[in-house]
Design goal:
By secondary structure, this protein is α/β, with parallel strands linked by helices. It has a single domain, classed as 3-Layer(aba) Sandwich (Rossmann fold). The chain has 12 helices and 14 strands. The strands form 4 sheets. Strands 3-2-1-4-5-7-11 form a 7-stranded parallel beta sheet, sandwiched between helices. The structure holds 2-amino-3-ketobutyric acid (AKB). 2-amino-3-ketobutyric acid (AKB) binds next to loops. 2-amino-3-ketobutyric acid binds next to loops.
Length: 336
C-alpha cells in the first residue's frame, strides 16, 4: 500500500536543509527526501539518494508513496547551468516535467490536488541594459520575462509548465481530471548563515560574508555598484510555507515575486566590514558573471504576494545581518 508523504527534492541543498528543519519542527510529514548527496546525520525523514532526473527512481517513489505535497527544490544554479546547459535542462526542466507528470497522476488517483511548490528566481528577468535596469528598479512579475541564462530559461519554462499542468492538463478529455496545484516563488539571492551557496551568480554576497567570518580574503566577482535583491534564508522558508498554506481561492497567479531588501555589492561589503572589521574584500569583476547579474533587477514588486497571501519579510537588511547572519555565522566557524 502507498504511504502518505511529503516529497522534498534537492533536500541536501541550502533551501532544502532549512525547509526540512521547519517542516520537522511543525510536525509535518512523513517526509521523504531526495538528493544526489547524502543528508547530514540526524536529518528528519526517509532519505533516497539519487538523481531527480532518474525516471526509474521516480517510478519507484510513485509506487511506494502517495504524495500530498512536493517541494521541488533540486536545481543547477545559474553559473553551473551556464557551464553545463544540457545537463541544466535535464535537471531543471526534464526532471520537473517527470515530477509534474507524477503529481498529475497522483492528483487524479487520490481525487485531490497534489500541491507542487517550486522555487523560481529573479533569473527569469532579463533587463536588456543598465539604463533600463536603473529606469525599472522594481519589476512586476509580467515585465522583462526575457532571461539571458539557461537557468533563467529553465525556471520560466517550469513556471509555465506548472501553470499548464494545474489549469489545462488533459483538457481534451470529456471530463477535466483533478490536477496538481502548482505554486512558485521568484526568489532573490538567498543568504544562509549555515550553508554556503554553490553554482549561483548571486553567490558573491554570501561568499563575501562566509569568507570574512573564516578570516579569508575575498575578491568579489562583480563591480561595487552591482545591485540586486537578497533575502535571508529564514524568510525564504517562511515564504515557501506561507505560499503553501494559502487557500487556492486567494491566489491570483501561479508565480509570485517575493522581496526583502536590495543592496549594492559595495553596501554588502560595508555590512560585512562592520561585523568583521579586519576582512580583506577586494574587487575582481568577471565580465561574464557580471553580464548575468546586470540583467537581473535591482528589486522586485511583490505587492501581489503581499495582497494575496500576506507575504511580508521579517528580516530587513539590518535584522538579517545583526540578528541572523552575523551571530550564526560567527558561531558556525567558531565551532570548527
Ligand atoms: C543564482 O545565483 O543562480 C541563484 C538565483 C538568483 O536564483 N542564487
Amino acid at each position: 500500500m502507498q504511504k502518505d508523504a511529503i516529497l522534498i527534492t534537492g533536500a541536501a541543498g541550502e533551501i532544502g536543509q532549512a525547509l526540512l528543519a521547519q517542516l520537522a519542527a511543525a510536525g509535518k510529514g512523513p517526509l521523504v527526501t531526495l538528493d544526489l548527496q547524502e543528508m547530514p546525520a540526524e536529518t528528519p525523514g526517509t532519505h533516497v539518494q539519487g538523481s531527480v532526473a532518474d525516471g526509474a527512481l521516480l517510478a519507484r517513489l510513485e509506487a511506494d508513496y502517495e504524495f500530498e505535497q512536493i517541494f521541488h527544490l533540486a536545481a543547477l544554479l545559474s553559473t553551473s547551468a551556464e557551464r553545463k546547459p544540457a545537463l541544466a535542462h535535464e535537471v531543471n526542466v526534464d526532471a520537473s516535467l517527470l515530477l509534474l507528470e507524477l503529481a498529475a497522476r497522483q492528483s487524479a488517483a487520490r481525487g485531490g490536488p497534489v500541491q507542487f511548490i517550486f522555487p523560481s528566481s529573479i533569473a527569469v528577468y532579463g533587463l536588456p541594459d543598465l539604463e533600463t535596469k536603473a529606469a525599472h528598479p522594481r519589476v512586476h512579475e509580467a515585465d522583462f520575462n526575457d532571461p539571458t541564462t539557461m537557468y533563467g530559461c529553465n525556471k520560466l519554462a517550469v513556471e509555465k509548465l506548472g501553470a499548464y499542468y494545474s489549469a489545462h492538463y488533459e483538457q481534451l478529455q470529456p471530463e477535466a481530471p483533478v490536477r496538481p496545484d502548482f505554486r512558485s516563488l521568484r526568489f532573490p539571492g538567498l543568504i544562509s548563515a549555515h550553508t554556503a551557496p554553490t553554482g549561483g551568480t548571486s553567490d558573491y554576497g554570501p561568499e563575501m560574508l562566509h569568507a570574512a567570518a573564516q578570516g579569508q580574503a575575498y575578491a568579489c566577482f562583480v563591480r561595487p555598484d552591482t545591485t540586486i535583491p537578497f533575502m535571508a534564508m529564514p524568510d525564504a522558508v517562511r515564504a515557501l510555507l506561507g505560499l503553501a498554506a494559502a487557500p487556492a481561492a486567494a491566489l491570483s497567479r501561479r508565480a509570485y515575486n517575493v522581496g526583502s531588501f536590495s543592496l549594492s555589492a559595495e553596501a554588502f561589503r560595508g555590512q560585512v566590514l562592520a561585523a568583521f572589521p579586519g576582512a580583506e574584500i577586494s574587487y575582481a569583476p568577471n565580465p561574464r558573471r557580471q553580464g548575468i547579474v546586470d540583467t537581473w533587477p535591482v528589486d522586485v514588486d511583490d505587492s501581489a504576494a503581499r495582497t494575496d497571501w500576506g507575504w511580508a519579510p521579517e528580516y530587513d537588511l539590518a535584522r538579517s545581518f545583526d540578528e541572523y547572519l552575523v551571530p550564526h555565522i560567527r558561531e558556525r566557524y567558531q565551532k570548527q
